[in-house]
C-alpha cells in the first residue's frame, strides 16, 4: 500500500509538472506579461519581499521594455549601456572584432551530432574542406578541395573515407583555432598534417594535436606558428613523428636547447628549420 501511494504521488507530481510546463510553453512572453505575474508561494506563505529582485519589489519602477526580457539582463548588455556616454568609433570597432572572434570560435567547435551522423573521418572531411583546407584520403593521391558551392560530400556515413593527410595552410579566417583542432580526434589513419602560418596555433593547440594524433602522425608542418619550449614538449609526445618543419628559432637559446633535447629523445625525427618570410613575420604580428 505504501509503495502504491508513493508511486501515485510521484506520478501526480510528474503530471502536474508536465502540464504546467506545457501551458507555459504554449503562451508567448507577451501573453504572460499581459496576464501579470502570479504571486509566488513558499510552503503556502507569500514569498518574502526582501528576497525578491529589486525591480519586482513594491514601489520600484519597471520599464515597459521589460516585455522583451524574460530573465535578468545580461551583464554584457548592462556594460554596453553603461559605456554609451563614452562610446567612440574605436570602441565600436573593438566590440565588432570581439564579436567576430567569438563567432569564429563557435563556428569551429566540435559537434558530436555531426560525428554521430557522418562518422569521425567523414565529419573531419566536412569540417576541414568547407573551411578551405584540403584533405587526402588513405590509398589516394588526389586532394579533396573546394567550397560549399561546388564540393559534393556524402551527407550520411559512407565507408571508405579514411583521412590520411590534412593541409590547413589556407584555413579561412586567419587559421584554425584550439576549438577546431578537437575535430582531429578518432582519425586513426592521419599521418600528415600542415598547420603552416596558422597564427592561432600555440602550445595548447600542439598539446591537443599530440593528444589526438600523437600515435599516428608522421609529418607535421608548424612553420609560421607560435612555437615555444612548451610546444616542443608537446611535440615530444608524438611518438610516431618522423618529419617536423618549423620556423628558424634564431637566437632563442631556450628553444634551440629544447629542440636539441627533442632530437636526442627521438633519433628518427628529422627537424627542418626554414627562414621566416615576410608573410610569416606579418602573421606573427
UniProtKB/TrEMBL annotation:
Name by which UniProt lists this protein: Mitochondrial ATP synthase regulatory component factor B
